[in-house]
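Troubleshooting: if your tokenizer reports a length mismatch, compare your output against this known-good record of 516 residues.
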Amino acid sequence: MKKVYTPKSVVENVELNTYEDVSLHLEIDANISMVKSIFDNCSDVVFREFLIDNQKSYLIYIDGLIDSNSVQLHALQQLFTDIKHEQLSANLISQKIVSISSINEVTTIKDVALKVLDGDTLLMVDQLPKALVFDAKGGQKRNVSEPDTETSIRGPREGFTESLRVNTALIRQKVRSNRLKSISKEVGRETRTKMEIMYIEGLAKPDLVKEIIERIDRIDIDGILESGYIEELIEDNPWSFFPQIQNTERPDTVAGNLLEGRVAIVMDGTPFTLLAPATFWQFLQASEDYYNRYHISIFLRLLRITFIFLALLLPAFYIAITTYHQEMIPTNLLSSIAATRESIPFPAFVEALIMEIAFEALREAGIRLPKVVGQAVSILGALVIGQAAVEAGIVSAPMVIVVSLTGIASITVPRFNMAISIRLLRFPMMLLASAFGLFGVLLGTLVLFTHLCKLRSFGVPYFSPLAPLNWKELKDVFIRVPWWAMNKRPQQFIDGNFTRQAPDLMPSTKQQKDPK
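Known-good structure output:
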């Protein structure tokens, strides 16, 4: 008998465990009675009674989770045909009558209940001690569309949906290799959420795959509703501000990371797929960096790295310089700043705190409101509040400029979870700057870099290949060299197969000459 997943907990469904080792009887009424007791007060579970050659039969399914047209055309309609059989059997039904592509058998009451809960259709016939499982899943599903969180100017426009099989199919369309492996798992006592652990055999390290599987197997929780649950439960350092697992809605991003030896965790019910292990620099890269020509990619990456420092340190620098180090400011600029701050009743730190909190509140309000209205509210709200605060003498005009630049800088980070981490760390930096000036900013920066160098993601150094330093792999960190120069895969993820492409792909002089 096929082994069925059993949740490891004492807080399980008591009725379902009662029938764990109960096999199906020959008498269908006894079987149906037990199944109905499991689904007591479940009005959406349908028991469709009919006759097959004068033998009582039942179709059992959950309304809304099946494709009713498929069941009607390929199962019921053919079962109702007036064909006489010498001996009705499960093999006869599955091989000659029902034309649904995937048909399995179960022999216990618990297996019947689990298959119904999975969205399958069960056929039970009198005098048959087994039930046939028809894979006719359906229900309402969202179509494949462009992801809102990872828009790109150049590249594929398709994104993941909430359907596990649609998502794995999108990945298979990108990586058409028999070495792409997929391991099924179920997590959650009540939700029994399905997931697939995908990797390319020969590229991903076996120890990495084994470690991810072991961490997922250790999870014992009532329910998993989104991949964020898994991310928090399997990451290396749960106290760190920085994300240690990347999430994405783009199949091309997943395919690219699989080809570099990473492992993807695809979950049912969410469009966000997890990628592990992850490094700090991975969160500063966008998918279109690899689709545009390398000159454009280099410029954009350097721009992002510059602005991530501005997003983290600009308010802290302004507070430190205006409070403790006025001698560092040119005289004309200092006079201008002093004139604007003459009537301000608050120190620079309180000014920055008021404006940063107001800006974050407006950004959060813009996200929660409808898309068109939210954008207008966030933009106009920032302009109106900033202008009103300056005219009322609560904050100075330079502080509004600093906060605005900081907000723009945080938006340039491609990954939301990294951007929000930088925005949170901005406040401790401001506090250190107000207490110790530039020495506090330097101290906070050193602590931050020390933490990044110590952090690990499934054993991979988070700041690699910069710390520890690997010169050969810096070709895809601060810059992105041309594709013909990226011959090797990242060594920290790959299981020995480092060669990505042929070594002689650089355009030759013959290609550069006039075709004539």
